[in-house]
């Protein structure tokens, strides 16, 4: 009993440390940029209605909303990845690798290129695309049960197929691709309060449903036979949690574009620290994902200033080697 209590306290401590890291990263991101601001400027801006000077305008209208968007996108993608890894029984599953992000991306590009006047529909149609891609991967990988290797192969095939659709649109409608290209790379440039308002409901609903399903995911991770023996409706749980993962991924993709590796790397780091209990793994993944994306976006803004490196490129640069490491370790 004592060891169980200690383990619980350790996991709670990890979550509190992640909250502190996220808050610290937000402040760091507010301070640094092409124009540096001070902590006193930040404090005055956050607690005063007077937004007349340039520092306050930069903080309130540019950096703060962008930080919030980065945190929400990171939390959504990391939580989506953690869910997909449990549902698909594959430690290498994440929204991009298994095609979920590509499904959302294709539908988003269709709206952005063919129906630009209806861009407010992007989150909704991105969810439908993400859900369709997830179900396609699941159907292709199913043969007397789910095998981890089949999930990756089916995901790569579906992702390539949907990616070819995106490429075809970019080729045939070359005069309209500028916005779509930037969106495909994955970045947070020019994201402000309107994007916060669009993404926040998706993030809140998705994260609440994810945490509500945490116990089921923990049971599911024990294996299908054990889960059925414990009374879990395995296929129903898979479908419901896949929908939650698709909702989270679609919300993030619709605002930030195709950012890879967040859903792959973050749950693995947390799993090494706090184990497989999804009651802690899901909120931990959300917090660490938010922290990593805020820091990555800050690095992208600052390191070659005034040139900005999209956060999707930063994540790919660090995430790809980690993916190869996991692939070799699990081989």
Strand and helix map with partners:
Blueprint: H1 2-31, H2 39-47, H3 54-87, H4 100-114, H5 122-141, H6 148-172, H7 178-185, H8 193-212, H9 214-220, H10 224-229, H11 234-256, H12 262-274, H13 278-302, H14 311-330
Helix pairs in contact: 1-3, 1-13, 2-3, 3-8, 3-11, 3-12, 3-13, 4-5, 4-6, 4-11, 5-6, 5-11, 8-11, 9-13, 12-13
In short:
By secondary structure, the chain is mostly helical. It has 14 helices and no strands. It has one domain (2-330): ABC transporter involved in vitamin B12 uptake, BtuC.
Structure description:
The protein has 331 residues and is an all-alpha fold. The protein has one domain: ABC transporter involved in vitamin B12 uptake, BtuC (Orthogonal Bundle), CATH 1.10.3470. It is built from 14 helices and no strands. Helix 3 (54-87) runs antiparallel to helix 11 (234-256). It is globular and about 65 Å long. The model has no long low-confidence stretch (mean pLDDT 87).
Key terms:
single chain, 331 residues, mainly alpha, ABC transporter involved in vitamin B12 uptake, BtuC, 0% strand
């Amino acid at each position: 009993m004592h060891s169980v209590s200690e383990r619980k306290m350790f996991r709670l401590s990890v979550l509190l440390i992640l909250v502190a890291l996220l808050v610290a990263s937000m402040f760091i991101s507010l301070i640094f940029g092409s124009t540096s601001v001070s902590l006193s400027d930040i404090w005055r801006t956050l607690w005063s209605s007077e937004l007349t000077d340039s520092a306050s305008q930069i903080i309130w209208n540019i950096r703060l909303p962008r930080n919030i968007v980065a945190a929400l996108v990171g939390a959504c993608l990391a939580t989506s990845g953690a869910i997909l890894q449990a549902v698909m029984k594959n430690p290498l599953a994440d929204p991009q690798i298994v095609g979920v992000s590509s499904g959302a991306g294709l539908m988003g590009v269709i709206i952005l290129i063919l129906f630009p006047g209806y861009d407010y529909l992007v989150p909704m149609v991105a969810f439908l695309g993400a859900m369709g891609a997830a179900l396609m991967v699941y159907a292709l990988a199913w043969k007397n049960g789910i095998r981890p290797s089949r999930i990756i192969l089916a995901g790569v095939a579906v992702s390539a197929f949907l990616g070819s659709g995106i490429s075809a649109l970019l080729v045939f409608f070359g005069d309209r691709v500028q916005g779509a290209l930037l969106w495909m790379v994955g970045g947070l440039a020019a994201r402000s309060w309107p994007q916060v308002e669009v993404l926040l409901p998706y993030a809140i609903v998705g994260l609440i449903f994810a945490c509500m399903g945490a116990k089921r995911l923990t049971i599911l991770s024990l294996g299908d036979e054990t889960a059925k023996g414990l009374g879990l409706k395995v296929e129903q749980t898979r479908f419901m949690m896949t929908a939650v993962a698709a909702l989270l991924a679609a919300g993030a993709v619709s605002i930030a574009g195709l950012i890879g590796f967040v859903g792959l790397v973050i749950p693995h780091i947390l799993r090494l620290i706090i184990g497989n209990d999804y009651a802690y793994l899901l909120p931990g993944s959300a917090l660490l994902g938010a922290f990593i994306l805020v820091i990555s976006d800050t690095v992208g803004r600052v390191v070659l200033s005034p040139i900005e490196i999209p956060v999707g490129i930063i994540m790919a640069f660090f995430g790809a080697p980690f993916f190869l490491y996991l692939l070799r370790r699990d081989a």
